[in-house]
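Before the break, one more example. Copy the sequence into your notebook; we will annotate it together after we see the structure.
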Amino acid sequence: MIRRLFALTVLCHLAAPLPAQVGFRPNASPYRDIRTGTVIELYRGQIYGSGGPIPVGPRDGAVTGGRILLRAKSTLAIGFGVWGASTVRSIVDADAPRATRVTGPIDHSLFAGEVNVQFNITGGKTWHGFAPYAGFGIGLAKGQSTPAIDTSGYSFGTKFFLVPAVGTRFFLGDRTYLRIEGRVMSWNLQYPQSYSEEPALDPGTEDSPNAVNPTGRRGQRVGAPQLTIGFGWGL
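Here is what the structure looks like once it is written out:
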């Protein structure tokens, strides 16, 4: 009896470490920790869009920018960035006939600064090297002024914009990664009073107005999709 109890005790001690073996071996796990700290990103991409129903908004141009990303928690990061874009837009002459009042496009430069909050979907880890995320940002963009061309009084000026985003990072190592991101910048275009008035060379009627903006609405929110590819490295 004593021998049996002794043998059972030995078997229990030998079996105790076995539950620790359940799961992935450290070198076989698809998950890897993401380093905390500060990251610098550089990126380049393209801005798309139509410029709005009245196509004076910026669209169709290359964008280049940089961002500093601060890891606040395992699932949260805060970014501060700047970018510049070489877009185009149309010119609208409110006094011209409807058939000829939209001309262009012309070159239109944009410069902006923004703050972003990024939520890492896989928390503080990568999955097979990938770290997908969703985010949201606010910023301030300034457009090129062209008063000699915009005779009807339109100007993009300086705009606050909102920018939801989704993307993923693919880590090449502990400190470096590639990033692809899609987002939509949204800003409120302000139309001049002349857009609501009938054109002097082609006036319409009350039932059939020819004004550029017959609704009289002075502003309209317009979206500008953006796709970028970037490179990041940790400090």
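The longest strand covers residues 102-120. The two ends are 65 Å apart (CA to CA). Try to locate both features in your own notes.
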